């Protein structure tokens, strides 16, 4: 075995390609020598004659070893394996079989390295057969003339095969194993009253039909492409929030409950409550691996996406009067939320972008507080001040009813003409979102490309943080055409961009193979499947809803089996993660029953502590309150696991089937070759033993974020004892330079640089000029 391991798998100048018959010849020769050695144990020092292996080494064909041959080889090795071989015997074999170069390499190798534990088949697949692809290797082999047991072999261009998932606990019980194929569409439940949906103001609608980013103001000439009115954003404390419709949570939306009963739906929810769970299904169905660039060419998701679980609260509301079935509201878990300036500013900015300048005055506090002596005039004004009503789209799929607020409408867009409106703060503000002094941030965007101060940086962050994927789910739930994004720094807008949903789909649901092969055999444009990524996105969205629906029904059935907990609310936690030792994702699911008092306490947790941006407290006091919030929430979560049901635990595994195949796809990332190729998904739900620790650990990951980000910001502020100035950078000492270039302070430095840029531009901006085409 020593000879086979050192000679058959490695050679000092490269990978030695050996046929199976060669390995067997060598192995047979070793067995023969072993027998000879046993016969002459009394004369162990007798020299063994050299063995002629020329007939075994003259073949270099590139052959893959079949499974049948592997099975035979394993048997032969087991039968011929020696229990004990003398050191002298081994030395003689090495001296007579191996070349001088190989012998020298063996002598100089690192013998202290741990011996690999993989079997011969695993070794051969992952290392020996790498050289059998017949294609140029991606990397050149090491030039050093050594033979290491752990030398890095060149990677094959072929994608690695997925590892078999390790077996679950013997106590795991398979509840459901079903195969689904998608043959249903998401349906619009009610006809839209498009006259009540807002439209873009300030001539921003032209961005809907012009791809790319549109600067508010040309950074070079300072000429405005849109009205200078957007240069200065209203302060949040000057905005009259009473003039806009307030957000209605899912559990309190009686209209939504009524529609659910009319449509005979068992579950109802909203975009904001569903997106976090849908992201977990995305990771599962696509078997997300950030390093697989041919399937995930976009910037890899930040650690938070892969660490933080989705948590929702499922509450029974009332029974359907026609069917007698209980109807459930699925609402996001708000227990770890904090009120930050950006979340409040969103409503203000949306009103600004959809309201013309003169009309927007009625959203200001000055307009609300002005003295009106004429009571009749006052009554007339109040009649005109009716709040704009939120307009919703109701969509259904399976037993789900989904509510989506409609922000904007333009009849020239495809579909129903609706699109979502998002206001995106610059990176310097988002990374310091807990800072109540954000309104003074002067970070600028004035470039298309670059790592800082650019639209490219903001778009990359949209992808990396998962925000763009979340936007795509919201648009898909609302049956919208796309997303309008306005980039700002709270004080000013910098630019605007419209992203059709199809473009976002091309980012998250594309495959490099699709770009290379989709034209093969095409006889028309329809055959090219330009919209294949959107087809994949739509199909996976529906698959996610089907699995989620079945999962909810399983949990409800398990809870209702105990009379004490019948028709009880529960918290549902979903987390997709890599199976240890495997290349597959698995979704872990945990459910904990909650009584109505616990549900109320859970959702009201954020208001119990003074942590919001409006609170007039010091940063140190805010951190103390956030720490109390975290600790008491962790304790509350622990108490909820003490019921008789404890923590109900499950897991979900999936396999994809394409065409008429009877076995699942072996590729790591299943992807259809065309829209016409039949696509089925087989999923299984297994019940696992209760696991309170895993449940609490997942929740703790979220609660820890309450303090971790604010603590970093506080430490950065306390260490920020330098004054940035363009005049003294060159004269700064090395210690000062280290402070300026420290990662924690880079964005703060560029906020100061932004202030200097604004001062430089003041002269040109004093007399604003707006672009007009020449006559």
UniProtKB/TrEMBL annotation:
Region spans: Disordered: 132-168
GO cellular component: mitochondrial envelope
Short name of one Pfam family: Pet127
Biological processes, Gene Ontology terms: mitochondrial RNA 5'-end processing
PANTHER family attached to this UniProt entry: MITOCHONDRIAL TRANSLATION SYSTEM COMPONENT PET127-RELATED
Entry protein name: Uncharacterized protein
Organism this protein belongs to: Debaryomyces fabryi
């Amino acid at each position: 075995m020593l000879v086979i391991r050192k000679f058959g798998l490695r050679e000092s100048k490269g990978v030695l390609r050996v046929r199976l018959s060669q390995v067997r010849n060598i192995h047979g020769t070793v067995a023969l020598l072993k027998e000879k050695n046993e016969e002459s144990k009394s004369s162990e020092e007798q020299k063994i004659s050299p063995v002629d292996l020329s007939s075994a080494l003259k073949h270099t064909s590139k052959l893959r070893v079949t499974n049948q041959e592997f099975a035979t080889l394993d048997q032969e090795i087991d039968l011929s394996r020696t229990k004990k071989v003398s050191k002298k015997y081994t030395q003689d074999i090495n001296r007579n079989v191996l070349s001088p170069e190989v012998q020298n390499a063996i002598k100089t190798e690192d013998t202290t390295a741990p011996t690999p534990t993989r079997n011969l088949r695993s070794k051969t697949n992952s290392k020996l057969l790498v050289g059998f692809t017949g294609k140029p290797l991606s990397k050149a082999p090491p030039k050093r003339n050594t033979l290491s047991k752990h030398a890095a072999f060149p990677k094959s261009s072929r994608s690695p095969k997925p590892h078999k998932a390790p077996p679950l606990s013997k106590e795991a019980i398979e509840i459901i194993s079903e195969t689904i194929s998608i043959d249903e569409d998401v349906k619009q439940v009610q006809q839209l009253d498009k006259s009540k949906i807002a439209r873009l103001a300030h001539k921003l609608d032209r961005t809907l039909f012009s791809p790319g980013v549109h600067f508010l103001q040309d950074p070079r000439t300072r000429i405005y492409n849109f009205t200078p009115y957007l240069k200065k954003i209203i302060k949040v404390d000057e905005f009259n929030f009473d003039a806009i419709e307030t957000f209605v949570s899912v559990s309190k939306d009686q209209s939504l409950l009524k529609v659910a009963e009319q449509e005979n739906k068992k579950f109802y929810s909203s975009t904001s409550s569903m997106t976090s769970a849908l992201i977990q299904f995305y990771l599962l169905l696509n078997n997300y691996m950030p390093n697989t660039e041919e399937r995930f060419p976009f910037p890899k998701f930040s650690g938070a996406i892969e660490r933080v679980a989705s948590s929702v609260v499922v509450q029974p509301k009332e029974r359907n009067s026609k069917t007698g079935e209980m109807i459930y509201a699925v609402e996001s878990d708000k227990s770890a939320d904090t009120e930050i300036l950006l979340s409040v500013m969103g409503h203000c900015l949306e009103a600004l972008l959809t309201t013309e300048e003169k009309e927007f005055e009625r959203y200001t506090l000055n307009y609300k507080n002005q003295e009106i002596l004429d009571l009749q005039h006052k009554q007339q004004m109040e009649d005109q001040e009716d709040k704009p009503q939120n307009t919703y789209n109701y969509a259904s799929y399976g037993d789900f009813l989904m509510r989506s607020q409609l922000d904007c409408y333009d009849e020239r867009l495809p579909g129903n003409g609706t699109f979502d409106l998002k206001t995106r703060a610059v990176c310097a503000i988002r990374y310091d979102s807990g800072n109540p002094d954000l309104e003074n941030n002067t970070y600028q965007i004035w470039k298309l490309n670059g790592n800082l101060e650019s639209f490219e940086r903001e778009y990359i962050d949209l992808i990396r943080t998962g925000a763009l994927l979340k936007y795509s789910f919201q648009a898909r739930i609302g049956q919208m055409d796309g997303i309008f994004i306005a980039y700002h720094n709270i004080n000013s807008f910098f630019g605007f961009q419209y992203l059709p949903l199809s473009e976002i789909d091309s980012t998250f649901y594309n495959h490099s193979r699709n770009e290379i092969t989709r034209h093969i055999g095409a006889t028309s444009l329809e055959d090219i499947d330009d919209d294949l990524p959107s087809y994949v996105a739509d199909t996976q969205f529906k698959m996610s809803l089907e699995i989620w629906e079945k999962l909810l029904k399983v949990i409800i059935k398990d809870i209702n089996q105990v009379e004490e907990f019948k028709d009880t609310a529960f918290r549902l936690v979903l987390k997709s993660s890599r199976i240890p030792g495997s290349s597959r994702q698995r979704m872990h699911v945990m459910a904990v029953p909650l009584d109505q008092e616990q549900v109320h306490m859970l959702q009201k947790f954020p208001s119990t502590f003074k942590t919001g941006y409006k609170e007039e407290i010091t940063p140190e006091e805010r951190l103390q309150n956030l720490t109390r919030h975290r600790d008491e929430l962790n304790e509350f979560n622990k108490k909820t696991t003490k019921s008789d049901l404890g923590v109900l635990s499950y897991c979900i595994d999936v396999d994809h089937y394409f065409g008429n195949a009877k076995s699942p796809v072996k590729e790591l990332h299943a992807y259809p070759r065309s829209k016409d190729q039949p696509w089925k998904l087989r999923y299984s739900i297994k019940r696992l033993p209760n696991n309170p620790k895993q449940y609490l650990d997942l929740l703790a990951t979220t609660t820890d974020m309450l303090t971790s980000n604010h603590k970093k910001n506080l430490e950065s502020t306390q260490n920020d004892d330098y004054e940035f100035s363009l005049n003294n950078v060159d004269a700064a000492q090395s210690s000062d330079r280290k402070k300026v270039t420290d990662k924690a302070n880079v964005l703060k430095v560029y906020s100061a640089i932004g202030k200097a840029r604004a001062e430089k531009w003041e002269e040109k901006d004093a007399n604003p000029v707006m672009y007009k085409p020449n006559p």
